[in-house]
Design goal:
Order of helices and strands: HHHHHHHH
Low-confidence stretches: 1-7, 188-195
Main location: mitochondrion
Keywords: Electron transport, Membrane, Mitochondrion, Mitochondrion inner membrane, Respiratory chain, Transport
Structural class: mainly alpha
InterPro entries: NDUFA5
Family: Belongs to the complex I NDUFA5 subunit family.
Largest sheet: none
Strand content: under 5%
Membrane topology: Peripheral membrane protein
């Protein structure tokens, strides 16, 4: 009966598609279906981008939030179907995305309140150095001196104009060789102990 009404009402295929695209359940206890999830997500993502502007531009948190929020907002603006939105974002159902976006807005407010990036001008970090033995399994992250050959090559490049024009490939090879030498030196350092 319902299908006959839709098909005879002039909407035809479009109305049938709309009827087919209705989600009945999320399958998650306590998480209700949001019939206008796309519009809700667009609103939440737009609000998120507006509120994150209170965080300093150079902070990693702001950059990360802006990046994934813009990406998700773009998908929501490009797609009308909730299934396509879920597939393209790939982070769960639209109802879960709504909860995530609401949680992100709460976190932004808390981050602004906590101000973790603000360091007082008079703050001094105390570095404590002592002779306590560090177990071998704990990485020490000590910088290894660059090989003397590196500095000779660098001086040669600086002094010879013909060598200053290096291709990207040659530069990449040089850098990867340097990384291998540094990694090799680090392994030797770890084997020898505290050096």
């Amino acid at each position: 009966m319902f299908l006959r009404r839709i098909l005879s009402g002039g909407g035809g295929v479009a109305a049938l598609r709309a009827a087919r695209a209705v989600k009945e359940t999320t399958g998650i206890v306590g998480l209700e279906v949001v019939p206008n999830a796309r519009e809700v997500l667009v609103g939440l993502y737009t609000r998120t981008l507006k509120e994150i502007e209170a965080v300093p531009k150079d902070e990693g948190y702001r950059k990360a939030v802006e990046s994934f929020t813009r990406h998700r907002l773009q998908i929501c603006q490009e797609e009308d179907d909730w299934k396509r939105i879920e597939d393209r974002i790939g982070c769960g159902q639209v109802e879960e995305l709504i909860e995530e976006a609401q949680d992100e807005l709460k976190l932004i407010a808390k981050m602004i309140e906590w101000d973790p990036w603000g360091v007082p001008d008079d703050y001094e970090c105390e570095v404590i150095e002592d002779d306590t033995l560090i177990p071998k399994h704990v990485p020490q992250h000590r910088p290894v001196a660059l090989p003397e050959e590196f500095f000779k090559t660098l001086d040669a490049v600086k002094s010879d104009p013909a060598l200053q024009v290096l291709s990207r490939q040659a530069l990449k090879r040089c850098c990867s060789d340097l990384l291998l030498v540094t990694a090799s030196a680090n392994e030797s350092f770890d084997v020898l102990g505290s050096g």
